[in-house]
Design brief:
- The N and C termini lie far apart (63 Å).
- The chain is globular, with a radius of gyration of 25 Å.
- The protein contains 21 helices and 26 strands.
- The longest helix has 23 residues.
- Helix 1 packs across helix 9.
- Among the domains are: 170 residues, Rossmann fold (3-Layer(aba) Sandwich); 132 residues, GMP Synthetase, Chain A, domain 3, CATH 3.30.300.
């Protein structure tokens, strides 16, 4: 399928596949389907309705919404108009919403439910560029946005306009060029204010076409889509790559409902972030630990059999008869149940947005569940490299996709060049020049290496590398990734820059930790007292030590502080894609960090 703009992508996908279930969503407890033709019709009518409100090519429209089917309609509508979609995470606070809307100069803001409308109402007076507010849901009493236009009315207006001039939407779409700005995606702002990443139709189309060349997906696949569409990873995959390949998309009710939705949809492909696989891994390990000694022995035997069989699968060689026989028995006794938890017919997961621990990928591979890890950034539309089900190397982020170049700078930084590289940061030419050099290479800020087979390995974020007082470089992400495979560790942040040794802030899995405390007669009523209890600290440090084999002496964590609460989005400690805001954590817990080094 040849296309140069996202408009051509969708219209050709509709004509090619004519899918009755292009999109599915759950409403009132039942799954409902939207055909590909209906998707395009909704988009065209909303586009014309927005056009009647004054939205034209080059304008910016902010979209404040959780994942829902209207997201697909509105995104496609803005593409038809040649307007830029400025997505806003549904988890943002009102001041953050105001900053992005004002910084982007959005002409219209579209808000979804009562929660998002209330946020917008709180800052409405500050939004100088906004001429209209559109709301998806009707709110009792009219809601706080008295001047808002219901999306249903916008679409109704557009439908009437289409009846008067049936070819108008098609003409608007045809006027959009590859260099038209499709979206301004604001980075999650782990340090400082977020910056608007300007992505053109060409940026996103090139990434879709390159990804489609290498990922084995097609019209018989169904995907469960759960990650936020405000993030470019899920947006590119669910809104553009899947339709281009003919994949049906089911919209998960929420991240919390994924486990239930997996059983209902039984997807064949799915994208998720490492936190999902970490939690699934921890649940499996916990379930095994609670089983009888016989069940534990069977499970560990099965994993061992799966690891042997997995090595043959990775090499592409047929397994010997005895190995194959053991694996089939292991599947029947153990792996079929585990695969059943994710629907029973998943061909592969794609992991992105943060590093995935090699131990987790290895474990699921042994169990017959494939996780292919990829790599990219918002600024790269996003994919730079990806492992393939037929070409895997765990511990890497795969090979570079067609059309993209990668080079490793002398200091180890990964630099990428290609049609997927952003146009720049919105209204920030100096910030753009800081990351895109005169040769067109985007400097990712990640440190890594290319091996002899062309697989890219990420070591860490350049700014996150810890340099100890002894001059040793410690990459925290690989250490944290391994340690989070422990069932008692929900989150961990390694610290120790300019210190004599690494230490860590540990967020425990409170449910599991409390169960251990009860067995040890340690009071669990007060979270602060539990976190500070010396036996709890010793226990958690022992868990860390048990997984530290293979770390260099200077990489081993010497001291820890157990925290009394989880990191949250609301407190600004996590990004919307559940990555830890390291600078926020180090600043917020500076006193606790300093205490760990007293007397050292």
């Amino acid at each position: 399928m040849e296309f140069e703009t996202l408009n051509q992508l969708l219209s050709q996908a509709v004509a090619t596949y004519k899918k009755p279930d292009a999109l599915s969503f759950k409403k009132d407890g039942a799954w409902q389907s939207v055909s590909s033709e209906s998707w395009l019709t909704h988009a065209r009518h909303i586009a014309l309705g927005l056009n009647e409100l004054g939205v034209e090519s080059g304008d910016r429209v902010a979209l404040l919404s959780e994942n829902r089917v209207e997201w697909f309609f509105i995104d496609a509508a803005l593409q038809i108009l040649g307007a830029a979609n400025v997505p806003l995470y549904a988890t943002l606070l009102p001041p953050q919403v105001a900053f992005i809307v004002e910084d982007s100069g959005a002409k219209v803001v579209i808000a979804s439910d009562a929660i998002q409308q209330a946020k917008l109402a709180e800052v409405r007076a500050q939004l100088s560029s906004v001429t209209h507010v559109v709301t998806m849901d009707a709110v009792a009493g009219g809601g706080p946005l008295k001047d808002a236009v219901p999306l249903s009315k916008v679409e109704e207006t557009g439908r009437a306009a289409a009846e008067k001039d049936p070819g108008r939407a098609e003409r608007l779409a045809a006027a959009v060029t590859p260099e038209t700005v499709a979206s301004i995606v604001y980075t999650s702002g782990t340090t400082g204010d977020p910056k608007g990443v300007v992505l053109t139709h060409h940026n996103l189309v090139s990434n879709v076409q390159a990804s489609q060349q290498v990922l084995p997906i097609g019209k018989t696949d169904i995907a469960l889509s759960a990650l936020p569409y405000s993030h470019v990873f899920e947006r590119m995959v669910a809104h553009y790559l899947y339709p281009a390949a003919g994949v049906s998309v089911a919209i998960a009710e929420s991240l919390e409902a994924v486990a239930t939705n997996l059983g209902e949809i039984r997807p064949t492909v799915m994208t998720m972030v490492p936190r999902f696989y970490e939690k699934l891994y921890a649940r499996v390990k916990e379930s095994v630990a609670q089983g009888s000694s016989t069940k534990q022995k069977i499970f560990h035997w099965a994993i061992a059999a799966g690891e042997v069989h997995g090595r043959y699968r990775l090499s592409g060689e047929p397994a010997p008869f005895g190995v194959e026989l053991k694996y089939k028995l292991a599947h029947k006794l153990v792996f079929a149940k585990l695969q059943g938890r994710i629907g029973g017919r998943l061909r592969f997961f794609v992991s992105g947005a943060a590093p995935l621990a090699k131990e987790i990928a290895d474990f699921f591979w042994a169990a017959g569940i494939t996780i292919v890890e990829g790599y990219g950034l918002t600024e790269t539309s996003p994919v730079i490299s990806v492992n393939l089900p037929s070409k895997l190397k765990f511990g890497t982020v795969g090979t570079v996709i067609p059309g993209v170049e990668v080079k490793i700078a002398p200091d180890g930084e990964i630099c990428a060049r290609g049609p997927n590289i952003m146009k720049g940061y919105y209204n920030k030419p100096e910030a753009t020049r800081e990351v895109i050099d005169e040769d067109g290479f985007f400097h990712t800020g990640d440190v890594g290496e290319l091996d002899t087979d062309g697989f890219l390995k990420i070591t860490d974020r350049k700014k996150d590398i810890i340099v100890t007082a002894g001059g040793k470089n410690v990459a925290p992400q690989p250490i944290e990734g391994r340690l989070k495979t422990n069932a008692y560790i929900a989150e961990i942040v390694v610290v120790g820059n300019a210190r004599s040794f690494p230490s860590a802030l540990v967020v425990p899995d409170f449910e599991k930790l409390k169960a251990w405390c009860v067995s040890e007669s340690i009071p669990t009523g007060n979270a602060d007292e539990l976190a500070r209890h010396p036996r709890v600290t010793a226990f958690m440090l022992a868990q860390i030590d048990s997984l530290s084999g293979g770390f260099a002496p200077y990489e081993r964590i010497k001291r820890i502080t157990v925290l009394a609460k989880e990191f949250t989005l609301e407190d600004g400690e996590l990004t919307p894609t559940m990555k830890v805001r390291r600078r926020v954590i180090e600043s917020r817990y500076k006193n606790l960090i300093d205490e760990m080094y007293q007397g050292s």
